[in-house]
Specification:
Elements (H helix, E strand, L loop, with lengths): L1 H11 L12 H20 L3 H22 L2 H32 L15 H14 L6 H16 L3 H24 L15 H19 L2 H12 L1
Helix pairs in contact: 1-3, 1-4, 2-3, 2-7, 3-4, 3-6, 3-7, 4-5, 4-6, 4-8, 4-9, 5-7
GO cellular component, one term: mitochondrial membrane
GO biological process, one term: ATP synthesis coupled electron transport
Protein name: NADH-ubiquinone oxidoreductase chain 4
Length: 230
């Protein structure tokens, strides 16, 4: 629903073109400020699924700001980030569910140290968190760079807030990975079932489309740049 709302903003904003762009200013600043606020909430979360949900809200702040700026780069970045983070948040929720099925707890402190007994699942956790941080050369980085560049061209002051939001995103992503996969294994998680083939297949079906989009990002970003270049 978050991504559907972002798409709706992209479709509706061109209809409001007669309205002066100065009216968008407070909404863009509010969206970027929301990134910092929701990222700060993520830093305090102990519930794994709540952390992932707030992470999605944080990333949508960039999408809203880009959709309101209405430049070819910002719209291409918004569409790229919506699709990329849609897959990323989905795989994170799937991984959180695999943890919950085995530990019966969403509290990260009660489901930590799983690297010792589920090493292959830790690899999926690492890949998902690196994509959540928009580490190169993921499609997430392409979308975020296009959006941050567009907001910087619109107003230089936004670089401070977007930079802070990016730093906080990397911080809580590493916190989520290290808390769930490292540390000492609790006594209640010693006897748990191993991972299954369907779970690894599910993670592969999330990661593979992102790798394919990385090789040809124009599939999702091209229509916006072509439309505005005519």
């Amino acid at each position: 629903l978050l991504k559907l709302g972002g798409y709706g903003i992209i479709r509706i904003s061109p209809m409001l073109n007669p309205i002066t762009t100065e009216l968008y200013y407070p909404f863009i600043i509010l969206a970027i400020w929301g990134i910092i606020m929701t990222s700060s909430i993520c830093m305090r979360q102990t519930d794994l699924k709540s952390l992932i949900a707030y992470s999605s809200v944080s990333h949508m702040g960039l999408v809203i700001a880009a959709a309101l700026i209405q430049t070819p780069w910002s719209l291409a970045g918004a569409m790229g980030l919506m699709i990329a983070h849609g897959l990323t948040s989905s795989v994170l929720f799937c991984l959180a569910n695999t943890n919950y099925e085995r530990t019966h707890s969403r509290t990260m402190l009660l489901a930590r140290g799983l690297q010792l007994i589920l090493p292959l699942m830790t690899t999926w956790w690492l890949l998902a968190n690196l994509m959540n941080m928009a580490l190169p050369p993921t499609i997430n980085l392409t979308g975020e760079l296009l959006i941050i560049t567009s907001t910087f061209n619109w107003s230089n002051l936004t670089l401070i807030m977007t930079g802070t939001g990016t730093l906080l995103t990397a911080t809580y992503s590493l916190h989520m990975f290290l808390t769930t996969q490292r540390n000492k294994l609790p006594t209640n998680t010693i006897n748990i079932s191993p991972t299954q083939t369907r779970e690894h297949l599910l993670m592969t079906l999330h990661i593979l489309p992102m790798l394919l989009l990385l090789m040809k990002p124009g599939l999702i970003m091209g229509p916006f740049t072509c439309h505005y270049s005519l």
